[in-house]
Amino acid sequence: MTRFSCVLAVCFLLAACGGGEQEVGEFKNDWLGNEIKVEALKDPKVEGVTCHLSHFDRGFWDRVSKGNWFEDPSNASIACRQTGPLVIGDIDMGKHGERVFDQKASLIFKVISVRRIYDPVNDTLLYVAYSRKPVDGSAKMAISTVTMYGQDVQWLEGRPELAAAQ
Is 56 within 8 Å of 106 (Cβ atoms)? Predict the structure, then answer.
C-alpha cells in the first residue's frame, strides 16, 4: 500500500468517527453494502434523556460505483424519550438552543448535528437533527420532543421563570 493510500485510509476512518454515541443497531439495506445505523445519544446536560439517531452509512461498493468517496447522505431521523429521572444542568435557554451532538458525514465539512431547544411555554425539550455545511446547508431535518409536564424535574441551576426564558 502506498503512503498516499495509507493517509487516505486514515482520513476515511477519522471521517467515519462520531462523538459520544453508542451504536445500538445496524443493518444492511441493499446489496451494495449500504447500512442504516442506529445510535443512542445521551444529552450531556440533561440526565434522563436518551435520543436514538438513525442515519445512512454508504458501503464500499456504493462509493466505488458513484464516486464521491468521502461523503454520506444528510438523511437522519431522531426519537428522544425520558429514560430516567430528569436532572437538568446549565442549558442554553435562548431560541437558538445548543448543539449536543455532532457526527461527521464527509471528510471535511458536512456534519449531522443534534440541537436541543427548551420551550418554556410548553415545558418541553426539543431535539432537532439536521445537516450542517459551511455553504449550501441541507433542508433535511427531523425533530423529537421530551415533555416535562407532570414530571418531577430537578433543575441544578434553578427552574427558569417563564418571562426570563422567553
Answer: no
Please give the Cα distance from 75 to 77 (Å, whole number).
7
- Cβ count within 10 A of residue 143: 15
d(CA 67, CA 70) in angstroms, rounded, equals 9
- Cβ pair 105, 112 in contact under 8 A: yes
- Domain boundaries defined on the chain: 3-160
> Could you read off the pLDDT tens digit of each residue along the chain, which spans 166 residues?
444 333 333 333 333 334 456 877 777 776 666 777 888 999 999 999 999 988 776 655 555 556 665 555 557 789 999 999 999 999 999 999 999 987 655 445 457 789 999 999 999 999 999 876 544 556 678 999 999 998 899 999 888 876 444 5
| Residue entry with cell 431522531 | 78
